[in-house]
Specification:
This protein is of the alpha/beta class. The chain folds into three domains: about 110 residues, Cobalt-precorrin-4 Transmethylase, domain 1; about 100 residues, Methyltransferase, Cobalt-precorrin-4 Transmethylase, Domain 2 (2-Layer Sandwich); about 190 residues, 3-Layer(aba) Sandwich (Rossmann fold), CATH 3.40.50.150. The chain is built from 14 helices and 21 strands. The protein is elongated, with a radius of gyration of 26 Å. It starts with 10 loop residues before the first strand and ends with a strand.
Length: about 425
Amino acid sequence: MKPSEWKPPLIAAVGMGPGPQWLGSLALEWISEAQILAGSRRHLELFPSHAGEKLPLKSPLAESLEEIGRLSNTKRLAVLCSGDPLFFGVGGTLAARFGRERLVVIPNVNSVQSLCAAICESPDSVDAVSFHGLNRDADIGCVLNILNRGRTAAIITDPAHNPQWIAGELLESNHCECRLIIGEDLGTACEKVRFFSPAEAAGEEFSPLNVVLAKPGQTICEVDGTDKLEMIFGFGEEAFEREAGMITKMEVRAVVLALLQLGHGQVLWDVGAATGSISVEAARIARLKGVFAIERNRSRYSKLLLNLEKFGATEVEAVCAKASRAMGALPAPDRVFIGGSGDDLDSILEAVERKLLPGGRIVQTVVLLNTLEKAVSFLRERNFEVSVVQLQVSRSASIAKDMRFEALNPVFIVSARRIC
């Protein structure tokens, strides 16, 4: 659609980019045709000679949205949006409130693209998060999740979650080796791009208009007194605080994670979590919406908490309770791993079957034949597609100048997919 064809109740969401010099002829045409301009005072002040009415946006936005809806029914209204309207911007809010068919979006360069361009870094290498508009209690977990996967986090800040706060949270989370790249007043004459360690940034002052890139450092994980570069997954049992034998062995863990077929945005239940090794590694290889590690034994639960802290797995929520009782209060899962069930297997399987989402997967490790038969029978009766892998692992052990192999206990891995 051309700006000259614009008729109410269509709303124009115009991306302002990093600064007024980024406004192209098309964006200026839409602004020129508008009878009402809505936006922050900073953006409205860029058009002192515009003949239309000016509507400053207020916080919280609810009142302003009511006004936008009412006025746009009869007049051409343009909302001036920071950066790109649909990149953590008000464009998404407008589309959700008024419907996509009532919105035309004129995109522009966003702040993350601007900062990446300033340091000649591809935006493909970063994962973006925004604290803008969140409550003051929002935590750093989403950033740590990105860093723990070896990715760069692009962070859109707000007054409560500014670069100093981000730096302080990274220091507290043992991410002191990160590098912070902070862009201030991008696209203006006052533009600055500076590089800091978290310790340096914690004591600095920054312009309120800023965006942060947090690049993962060579984070160190101490295992049995030896410093090792932190990996994504594939940790040996010695990396975890554990009770003797109460851990999913590394080789079994690798097969379990493969069979879970994790996808970004999913919810995972780790039932009978013990050390939490499955939860920790699952959260590191996929951007999961939620991970819930359930362990009823208090001694093992204390080890679970230590491991979550050790690996910075802030996205994992630990639950100390009998699994069948805890599940009712948890979000419905896409994936479920059952590592331990004790005498509660029937109740656990029934609770999982009730709440598992369509197309969901269950993976269970089993060592006893009776348990294997019970699990497979239950799942087949409820129209699951079931397969079983029997895993026998032997590890090498040194003997004199040679080596021999020591067999671990065989494990059955049941994999089931809900047939829609």
